[in-house]
Amino acid sequence: MDKQAIITALKKHKNQPYLDYRLKRNTESFTDLLFNMLFDVRTPIDSNLDILAAKFDELVDLACWETKRPCKKLWEEYVSDLPTVLEKLNLDAQAILNCDPASLSIEEVYMAYPGFYAIAIYRLAHELYQKGFPLVPRLMTEYAHRQTGVDINPGAQIGDSFFIDHATGVVIGETAVIEDNVKIYQGVTLGALYVAKSLQKQKRHPTIESNVTIYANATILGGETVIGENTVIGGNAWVTDSVPANSTVFHTPEIRIKTETNV
Fold first, then answer.
1. Range ranked top by mean pLDDT from 10-14, 197-201, 229-233, 248-252
2. Is the model's pTM score more than 0.90?
3. Mean per-residue pLDDT, 192-201
4. Ordered structural domains, the chain, with CATH
5. What DSSP assignment string belongs to the chain?
6. Residue 21 CB coordination number (10 Å)
C-alpha cells in the first residue's frame, strides 16, 4: 500500500469530528492553575482569576458542543462556588491531620498527601459536573487519577471531612453517596453490582453514611447497598448487602500451618 492509499484509509476511519486533544492538555493546565491559586501562597488570586477565566473560555470553545447550552455563562456561577469548595477542602485537610498519626503538619497534608489532591480535584470537578459542563470534569478527575491512583467519578456525592489514607487503588463510582466524616484506605472500591449501559440513569453505587471507616481493599457494590453510620468495614471484605448502623464487618482468612505431612 503506497503512502497516499495509507492516508486515504486512515482518513476514512478517523471519524470523530470533535476529538481535539487540546481539550485534554488545556484541561490539565486549567486544573493545575486552579489548584495552585487556591493553595499556593505565591499564586495570587486576583490576577489568576482573569487567567483562569480565559482558560475556561478555551475549554468552552473545545468542549461545549451543544449550542443550546450556554456554557460561557457557567464561569461566573462556577467561580462564585469556589469559596465554598475551598472551605470544604480545608475541612478535608484538617480531617487528615486529625486522623493520621503520621501527619506532621497541615502543610504536609496539602503538599504531600495524594488522597487530599485527589479529593481536591474531585471537588473542583464536581461543581462543573453539577452544572452540566460536558467532558471537562471527567478529564479533571482522570488527570488526578493518573497522578494519584485514585479514581473518583465527578458525579459522586461526597460530604464534609473526607479522608482517603494512602490513596492508591481507590475507586468511587459516579452514583456513590458518601456522607460526612468518612475515612477510607487504599484499594477500596465503591462500585456497581452489575455493569450494563441500560443502567446509566440508575443509582448503581453504594451509599456510605456518616462516620464510617472502610479499611484496605474492601469492596462495596450496588446502588441499593447502604453502609449505616458509625460502621467499620474491615480489610478485604466483600459487601453487596446493606449493613446496619454501628456494625463491624470483617473478612476471616483461612490459615493453614505448613507441616512436614502436608508439604
1. 229-233
2. yes
3. 82
4. 19-150 (1.10.3130.10), 169-254 (2.160.10.10)
5. --HHHHHHHHHHH---TT--THHHHHHHHHHHHHHHHHH-TTS-HHHHHHHHHHHHHHHHHHH---TTS-GGGHHHHHHHHHHHHHHHHHHHHHHHHHH-TT---HHHHHHH-HHHHHHHHHHHHHHHHHTT--SHHHHHHHHHHHHHS-EE-TT-EE-SS-EEES-TT-EE-TT-EE-TT-EEETT-EEE-SS--GGGTTS--S-EE-TT-EE-TT-EEE-TT-EE-TT-EEPTT-EE-S-B-TT-EE----------TT--
6. 8
Residue 257 grid cell: 500451618
Answer yes or no: is pLDDT of 42 > 80.
yes
